[in-house]
Specification:
The protein is mainly β and 128 residues long. The chain contains 1 helix and 11 strands.
C-alpha cells in the first residue's frame, strides 16, 4: 500500500538549515503529484511547496520563496525539502503528501486540493 515516511525534523537555530526527506513506497513517486505542508497547533495547514504531476511545475508559498527548495530523487523514490535561512515562524510539523496523477497545477495542489496520501509528520523547531 501507499506509504510516506518523513524524517529530518530537528531543533535548529534561526538562520540555520535542515533537509527534510519523504521516503515513498507502494507507488512511483515521480508519477504522482507531491507536496510539503506544515501545521502549527491551533492554526490551519499551509501548503509550503508542491510539484505538479501534470506539467512538472513547482510552487512555493510566499513565506518560504527563495529559502526552501523542493526536489525528488527518483532512483531513491524520495522527495526532499531543503530549508535554508530558517526563521522562528517556520516552526511547525511538516507533512509530505501525494496524489495519484491529476491535472492540477502545483499552485492549486498546495492551495486548493486535498491530497490523498499523507505521512505522519516531522517536527521542525526553529529556536535560539
Amino acid at each position: 500500500q501507499v506509504q510516506l515516511v518523513e524524517s529530518g525534523g530537528d531543533l535548529v537555530q534561526p538562520g540555520g538549515s535542515l533537509r527534510l526527506s519523504c521516503a515513498a513506497s507502494g507507488f512511483t513517486l515521480e508519477d504522482y503529484a507531491m507536496g510539503w505542508f506544515r501545521q502549527v497547533p491551533g492554526k490551519g495547514r499551509e501548503g509550503v511547496s508542491c510539484i505538479s504531476s501534470f506539467d512538472g511545475s513547482t510552487y512555493y508559498a510566499d513565506s518560504v520563496k527563495g529559502r526552501f527548495t523542493i526536489s525528488r530523487d527518483n532512483a531513491k523514490n524520495t522527495m526532499y525539502l531543503q530549508m535554508n535561512s530558517l526563521k522562528p515562524e517556520d516552526t511547525a510539523v511538516y507533512y509530505c503528501a501525494a496524489d495519484p496523477p491529476v491535472v492540477v497545477t502545483a499552485k492549486n495542489l498546495c492551495r486548493v486540493r486535498h491530497l490523498e496520501f499523507w505521512g505522519q509528520g516531522t517536527l521542525v523547531n526553529v529556536s535560539s
